[in-house]
Each structure stands twice: as C-alpha cells, then as structure tokens.
Design goal:
Layout (H helix, E strand, L loop, with lengths): L2 E2 H8 L2 E3 L5 E2 L1 E2 L9 E5 L15 E5 L11 E5 L2 H16 L4 E2 L4 E2 L4 E2 L4 E2 L4 E2 L4 E2 L4 E2 L4 E2 L4 E2 L4 E2 L4 E2 L4 E2 L4 E2 L4 E4 L4 E3 L5 E3 L5 E4 L4 E2 L4 E3 L5 E4 L4 E2 L4 E2 L4 E2 L4 E2 L4 E2 L4 E2 L4 E2 L4 E2 L4 E2 L4 E2 L4 E2 L8 E4 L2 E3 H12 L1 H15 L1
Parallel strand pairs: 4-5, 5-6, 6-7, 8-11, 9-12, 10-13, 11-14, 12-15, 13-16, 14-17, 15-18, 16-19, 17-20, 18-21, 19-24, 20-25, 21-26, 24-27, 25-28, 26-29, 27-30, 28-31, 29-32, 30-33, 31-34, 32-35, 33-36, 34-37, 35-38, 37-39
Antiparallel strand pairs: 1-3, 2-7, 22-23, 39-40
Length: 339
C-alpha cells in the first residue's frame, strides 16, 4: 500500500516541504532509508543522516531548517517522534483491517459475534462463545466453550483460549500464548504418586491487557485467575492458578509467578524474576531482573537479588562482594602480622 507525502501530512496535520506527490510504501530508520521509504528525525544525534538518507519522505520537527542540500521530502510537525508513533499506530490499524470468515474454520453451536469479525482459516470456535465487534482472530487459533471476547481484541495466529475464559475489550494476545490451561495442582498419595486436583475455575483478562508470545496464564483451582485492566505481559511468562495482577502492572519476559500470589497495581517486574506463591506484593513495587521473591513486599519497595532485599542495600553489598577476594587477602595478612 502506497501513501503520498500529502496524504501523510493530512493524517499528521503537518506541512509538506518538497514534493507533495512523493510516495512511500515502507518504513525505515533514517540511516537505512532508501527510495520508497518513510523515516523520521527527532534525535539530534542523527542529524547528519538527513543529508545522506535516500528515504523519500522524512518527518521532522517544525523548527528544523536544513543547512545543506537534501533529497528527501520533509513533513514538518510539532513533535516528530510523537507524529511517527501516531503514524505507526495508523499503519498497524490499516494492516490489521481484515474482516470475514475464512475457510476451513469451525464455528460451533450458539456462537454470537459482532460486526467486522475476522476469523482466519483453521480456527475453531467452541459452543456458546460470545465475540464482540471488530475482533481479529488469526489462523490456527482455538477458542474453547463459553469464552467471551470483548470489542477490538486481536488474537494472533496459534493462540489457545481454554473454556470459560473472559477477555475484556481492546486486548491483544500474541502467537503461541495459552490462556486458561490447568493450574499445577497435584496432591501426594501415600504410595508416593500424585493425584491431580481438578482445576474448575477460569481466567479473567480485563480491558486493555497485552499478552506477549508464548505466555501462559493458568485457570484457577476455584474462582478466577485475574489480570486487571492495563496490564502488559512480555513473552514467555508463566502465571499460575489464582494469581491476581493489579492494574497497569508491567512484567518482563521469563518471569514466573506461583499460585495464589497477589500483585498490586503499577508495579514493574524485570525479566527472569521468580515469585513464590501465596504472598502479597504491594502497589508501585519495583523488582529488578533475576530477583527471587520469597516473601511479601510492601507498597513502593524496590528490591533486587535472590533472595531479594532492598535495592540500595543490594548495590552496596555487591560492591563488597566484588572486593571479597581482596578483603579475605587483607584479613589473612593482618592475621599473620598479629601472630
């Protein structure tokens, strides 16, 4: 799909300096711009590239005035970075603007869906499923019985949504993620074997939740595993049964959260964090990457380490740890002198 400088300026409410009929069909970094590409300049560190870029169109701040000859057509806006972000969002919307039901696909009994549904080929939709307006479900996706999906959701290829799951509006679930699989519940028997405990709860994703690729969210044993509105989950995260994650909390990849832990709102959790079950993490907590959380954390704490403790204390202790061989050597020398 091609766009002219004039069309793009209309979307961004900008001013064209150069050829209004210049066309682009792809995006590029300014240092990698080629004919037919659109780029932007906002960081002064990249200023030199605007004089050498081959990009057909470049979005710049309205204060920019070239000091040398340029070949690219400019679109001047108040804030080039924000304008380019807006354009990316618009581009993404156009790219995802699909509708219709492809074949082969299976839609079971008593399924209801709204306007502008896109259901890709080889999808399965179970009984009594309710799907809202403008939902995009990409190929090879499974949706179990009694699932509800709100308006404007996107489920990318290969997503698995188990039965009874409730998904709010404006949610995005990326490929390979599984929502609603059984929690890890087994009871030991006297003979040393394990008996599976039925997992009869569900998963609830509230509005505006993003789930990265290959992330798994287990259904509750009883009740619900709840991901509150605005939560953003990275790729390859494990969330166990009956966990609750508060509003607008963000979690980086390879984090694992054990069962029945409650995490507050506006928390930031780094990658490869391990969190034990049955604890409470307060609002606005910051957990540094690769930390091990074995106890509850109070509101506003920032921690690091395994087991994790106060971030400032960890940083001071780490300095001593790095100097530990020298400290031991100094103690040995001191001991010899005393003897």
């Amino acid at each position: 799909m091609k766009f002219t400088a004039e069309q793009i300026a209309g979307i961004l409410e900008g001013k064209v300096v150069g050829n209004p009929n210049a066309e682009v069909y792809k995006l590029a970094k300014i240092e990698e711009g080629v004919v037919g590409s659109l780029t932007f300049l906002s960081n002064p560190k990249y200023l030199n590239y605007i004089y050498s870029t081959q990009a057909s169109i470049t979005i710049v701040n309205d204060t920019f005035e070239p000091e040398q000859a340029i070949t690219t057509t400019l679109i001047k806006v108040e804030d080039a970075y924000k304008a380019f972000s807006k354009l990316l969002e618009y581009y993404n919307q156009v790219k995802l603007m699909k509708s219709g039901i492809e074949q082969p696909s299976v839609i079971s009994e008593n399924v209801t869906y709204g306007d502008q549904l896109y259901l890709g080929s080889f999808c399965y939709v179970g009984k009594n499923v309710i799907i809202g307006n403008n939902v995009k479900i990409y190929p090879n996706t499974f949706i179990g019985d009694n699932v509800t999906i709100g308006d404007n959701c996107v489920l990318f290829a290969g997503v698995r949504i188990y039965s009874e799951t409730e998904i709010g509006a404006n949610c995005t679930i990326h490929s390979g993620s599984i929502i609603g699989s059984d929690g890890f519940g087994f009871a030991p028997s006297e003979d040393g074997s394990y008996t599976k405990i039925p997992q009869i709860g569900n998963v609830i994703l509230e509005d505006n939740v993003d789930v990265g690729s290959c992330t798994t969210i287990d259904r509750a044993t009883l009740g619900s595993t709840i991901i509150r509105k605005g939560v953003k989950l990275d790729n390859q995260i494990q969330i166990a049964h009956n966990v609750e994650i508060g509003e607008n909390t963000v979690i980086a990849s390879q984090t694992g959260i054990a069962g029945s832990t409650k995490i507050g709102k506006n928390c930031m959790i780094g990658g490869q964090v391990g969190i034990v079950g049955h604890i409470i993490i307060g609002d606005n907590v910051r957990i540094q990457a690769q930390s091990g959380i074995g106890k509850s954390l109070k509101e506003g704490e920032t921690v690091q380490g395994s087991p994790a403790f106060n971030y400032g204390d960890f940083s001071k202790s780490f300095v001593h740890f790095r100097n530990f061989p020298k400290i031991v050597s100094d103690l040995d020398n001191l001991k010899k002198k005393l003897e």
